[in-house]
Design brief:
single chain, alpha/beta, Rossmann fold, 2 domains, 13 helices, phosphopantothenate--cysteine ligase activity, CoaBC
């Protein structure tokens, strides 16, 4: 599952107001959201799939029985951060209230636990009908946010409550929902991920086993919570988190340059990358033949964390990681103190554990609070726990 924190699944109901959702798609994109449209089959009588695909640049599915191998009602539900249904007809509202799953959109709604915004649009008599009012009340009691429709001109010469709200009003309502779930909105987070490589010659290097999975998981989680993310990526072969600004680097010196460029404007630094402690004193421009490869003279790389922490401004938070094979807490505590960190996560990598895995375990240590033990869990879960601790310190 790839989450950016800005993924909107836009359901389009079968009413004449469906054409107005084309403008809503554009306005959502202008606001930085990534939009996937799921129209009901009835709505295709008003706006066809080609329109939604052209506007979003994404494929459109309308039936549960399309691309069955991908299990679309689950995959689309898992990828969405928010669901907006606009317009929502009286029939669609009734089906949602009954918990029915008779098309792709209603299947997705049942399969998703993310916040849901319903934007009704229908004739005034239908909106004021007792059945519709009861159905709206049911949805609101279940946690759906149901907007009040506008009052104005409708189909033909009719005027009254039931008009589709303008795009700005819908996005304002969505922004209020996002504000309640995006606790890091506006926070600038700088994250390093992966492992640096120090060249010996054109074909060999000194490196480490870090895959970058934990750093990328933190980037994804931070994006999902509204943060602005800059990811300094060292030799990672992973999908780029949508919405992140990515700076690729290879060596410790290049990572230091990136930190010096971006740290000053960041609120938080999460130093997840494994930085090589040393590099060859001399880089051979030609491949060293095996018979001549007797020894490599090394020099220490700069201590990136210690250097950057000395240049921090008041209020900036620095998070470190420690991969150890013995005396975990002692080594991590020393690193926390010596490098001036706010918190550090340490884990046991004996026998190559953790590196390249989707699972992790270890312990958080803090400069101002008791440590927290983390039982075996996913790196995604650890990412959110780390950000919980960051949020607490920011506030």
């Amino acid at each position: 599952m790839s989450r950016s924190g800005r993924e909107i699944l836009l359901g389009v109901g079968g009413g004449i107001a469906a054409y107005k959702s084309a403008d809503l798609v554009r306005r959502l994109q202008d606001s930085g959201y990534l939009v996937t449209v799921v129209p009901t089959p009835a709505s295709l009588n008003f706006v066809g799939s080609a329109t939604w695909e052209a506007l979003t640049g994404r494929p459109v599915q309308t039936q549960v029985w399309e691309n069955v191998h991908a299990v679309p009602h689950i995959s689309l539900a898992e990828n969405a951060d928010y669901i907006v249904i606009a317009p929502a007809t009286a029939d669609l509202i009734a089906r949602l209230a009954q918990g029915r799953a008779d098309d792709l959109l209603t299947n997705i709604v049942l399969a998703s636990a993310v916040p849901k915004l319903i934007v009704p649009a229908m004739h005034p008599e239908m909106w004021h009908d007792r059945a519709t009012a009861d159905n709206v009340e049911v949805l609101r009691n279940r946690g759906f946010v149901v907007m009040e429709p506008d009052v104005g001109r409708l189909t033909g010469s009719d005027v009254g409550a039931g008009r589709f709200p303008d795009s700005g009003s819908i996005i304002s309502e969505l922004s209020a929902i996002v504000g309640r779930t995006s606790d890091l909105l506006g926070v600038k987070i700088l994250i390093t991920a992966g492992g640096t490589r120090e060249a010996i010659d054109p074909v060999r290097f000194i490196g480490n086993r870090s895959s970058g999975k934990q750093g990328y998981a933190i980037a994804q989680a931070a994006l999902a919570r509204g943060a602005t993310v800059r990811l300094v990526s060292a030799n990672c072969d992973l999908p780029i988190p949508q919405g992140a600004q990515v700076t690729p680097v290879e060596t410790a010196d290049q990572m230091q340059d990136a930190l010096e460029e971006f740290f000053e404007d960041s609120d938080v630094l999460v130093m997840c990358a494994a930085v090589a402690d040393a590099k060859p004193r001399n880089l051979s421009e030609m491949k060293i033949k095996k018979k001549d490869l007797h020894s490599i003279e090394l020099v220490a790389n700069p201590d990136l964390l210690a250097t950057i922490s000395h240049n921090r401004k008041a209020g900036q938070i620095i998070v470190g990681f420690a991969a150890e094979t013995s005396n975990l807490e002692l080594h991590a505590q020393n690193k926390l103190d010596e490098k001036g960190l706010d918190m550090i996560f340490v884990n046991d990598v004996s026998g190559g554990a953790i590196f390249g895995s989707d699972q992790t375990h270890g312990r958080f240590l803090f400069k101002d609070a008791p440590g927290i033990e983390i039982a075996p869990t996913s790196k995604d879960t650890l990412a959110h726990e780390l950000l919980n601790q960051v949020r607490n310190r920011l506030s």
